[in-house]
Amino acid sequence: MKAKIVFWFLAGFAVLFTACSESTADMVEEEILAGDDVKSSEIAALLSDSCDFTNELSLEEIEGLLLMREEEKFAHDVYVTLYETHGLPVFDNISKSETAHTSAILYLIEGFGLKDPYVEGVGNYSNAAFTDLYTQLTGQGNAGVIEALKVGAFIEEYDIADLEELIEATENETIKRVYGNLLRGSIFHLRAFSAVLNGMGESYTPIVISQEEYDEILIENSDDDESDSNDTFVPGTGDCDGTGPNF
């Protein structure tokens, strides 16, 4: 698997120092929280079957699970930090979604008998690349609300790109099911961050995924399951649906 942990994008990750009124901030929070509620209700409404841990995994599949375990924690940690800085409920709420996502990956890691790479503490990871990204992105996001929202959008497109690659690389249906549903969640979050930025008179330019894919994500009807371009999505709730056990 070709990991998408890269740093060249940081130089081109432009941020704008823009002030907004209290009324605009309130509108933004309501809009993005509504988007997150849609995402949560979509996942909660799924119907599921159980995991299958009988198939032997390839090295690429193993590396993918370990990568996503820390990548979801990384997203959680950045959002927790940005919530502490800016107090926007969206970061608090989405960080909880990321907790569920990393727990879903943990369930697979334990089910397949793998060693969990998880390291306790915000900003701490086994993979040093995530440590560097955490430092870089929280530094950018702490500069202002606009910068923070753009960091959130970047993390979600980053997650989308990795999940798409991992789905393509595996034939394991249990892994595909979880990855497909995590991908769906990231799509909802990217739409939400983008909508909030637009509401503040700002726009987001994708850095990891193509502009064409980004535009397609934004124009999809998030309320219509049948129209969603994510054909890897597999309906389900329970341990192997991408929400994790007991969530």
Compact description:
The chain contains seven helices and no strands. It has 247 residues and is an all-alpha fold.
Could you characterize what this model shows?
With about 250 residues, this protein is mainly alpha-helical. About 60% of the residues lie in helices and about 0% in strands. It contains 7 helices and no strands. The longest helix is centred in the N-terminal third of the chain and has 28 residues.
Number of strands: 0
Content of β-strand: under 5%
Could you give a short account of the major beta sheet?
none
- Binned, the helix content reads 55-70%
Global Rg: 17 Å
Poorly predicted spans: 1-29, 31-48, 221-237
Helix-strand category:
mainly alpha
Q: Termini distance?
A: 30 Å
Shape: globular
Average residue pLDDT: 78
The H-and-E topology, N to C, reads as: HHHHHHH
The number of helices is 7
